[in-house]
Amino acid sequence: MxxxxxxxxxxxxxxxxxxxEAEMSNAGLARAVVNAAAREGLHLGTNTTTVRRMLDGxxxxxxxxxxxxxxxxxxxxxxxxxxxxGFIDREPTGEDPHDGLTCSGTLExxxxxxxxxxxxxxxxxxxxxxxVFSVAAFAEPTIFALIVPPTQSSARAAGQRVGMxxxxxxxxQINQLRKLGGQFGSGRVREQVVVLxxxxxxxxxxxTYTEKTGKALLSGVAQATRLAGFMAADTGxxxxxxxxxxxxxxxxxxxxxxxxxxxxxxxxxxxxVRIGENTPAxxxxxxxxxxxxxxxxxxLTITQGAATPALxxxxxxxxARGLALLGEAxxxxxxxxxxxxxxxxxxxxxxxxxxxLFYSECDLTSDLAVCLRGIGDTxxxxxxxxxxxxxxxxxxxxxxxxxxxxxxxxxxxxRDLEQAAAYGRDALRSAADVSSSIITQRLNTLHRQIxxxxxxxxxxRELDERLTTFFTRSAxxx
Length: 478
Fold this sequence. Notes:
This protein is mainly alpha-helical.
C-alpha cells in the first residue's frame, strides 16, 4: 500500500535532527517502521526512498507518522510526539486516550498516559487549572484496581540498562522531594517532581531491565506519580491531581504492590474528604462523604488482609472522617477506635519505607481530631489537636500549619475566641515560608469565619488585620 499523500515545502528538518541524534540511517528507519507495522498486522512498503521523501517534506499517510514517532521514541528512550517528528497529526478523532481519568487496558498504555500527562504538565504551567474535581471519577478506576491482575512480565529489553541501584536512587529522590514539600510547600518543588516522573516513566517504557528490577521500577514510578498528584492538589489543581492518582493506582496494582495501591486509595479518600469538608451544599458534602468512605474501605479490601498496622489505621481514620461528613457519629467513633487500636501495634521496622514518612502518630492524632470536630466533640478535638501539634516533626512545617488552622477553627466552634486567634497567629507565622494553595484556602476559610465574630473580640480583630495584610502581600507577589 502507498504511504505518502503529499509534500510540504522546506523539508522535514525536525525528523532529520532526530535521526542524527538517534544515529539512525534512512534504511534503519525504514526497516524499523515496517517491523513496527507488521507487529500490528499491517503491511507497509516503506523503504529508503520513502524516508528520503519524508525528509524532503512529504507527509506520509496514516499510520506511518505514528509508527515513525514510536520507532524514534524507542531509539531515543523518550516519548516523541508526531508533531515533534515534523508531521501533521492526523490521528482519527475520538476520545482522548491521555485524558487520565480512565485506566488503560495494558501496562504500556498506562505508562504512555503518565508520560503524556507529565509532559503536558511540564509544557503548560496552568494545565487543568480551571477544571474541577469530579467526585464520581474515582469509582471506575477503583473497581478496575480490585480486579486487575499484576502484569505477567515486568522485564523489558529496549534501551539503556536499568539496575536496582537506579531504582534505589529514584525512591530516595522521591522521599527527599516529599520531605522538601512538607517543609516548604509543594509550590517550591512540584516542577522537580513532574520532571522526575516524566524521565522515569520514559525509562520504564524504553529501558532494559530484569523482572525483579522491573517490578521495583514500576512501583517506584507509581510512587512518583502519586507524589505528582499530591503536589498538584497542594498547588490548587485538584483535577490534575485526580488524574495522577488514578494512574498511580493502576501502576501499583500492575506492579503487584497491593500495599502501595491501598495507600493511593487512602490518598484519594483524603482528597475527597478534604473537598467535602469545604463544600457548602449539603448534598455535595454527603456525596463526598460516601465516596471517601468507599475509597477507604476499598483500600482495606485491596490488601487482602495484609495491611500493616499503620496503613490499616490510616484507612480507618479516613473512613471515620468520611462517616463524620455523613453525620454518622457512632459509626465514625467505631472506625476511629479501630484506628487507635491498630496503631498501638505499629512497629516502624515492619512498615514499608514510605509508610513511616507519610503517616506517623502525629498524623493519626491530627486525623482523629478533625473527625471528632466533625461529629461535634469540640473539647476532645482540641485535646487531640494539641497533642498532634506537640508531636509534629520539625520538618513538617506544612503539616504543623494545617494543625494550627484546624485548632483555630475548632476553637471558634467552641467559642474560645482568644485561643482561636492565638492559633490563627501561629498558623500565619508557619505559613510565611510555605508555598501551599491548600494552606492559603484554609486561611481564607478562617478569615471568612471570624468576620461575624470580630466585633466582639479584640483578639479576632487583630487576627483579621493580620490576615488582610497576608493576603494583600500574597496578591502583590502573584
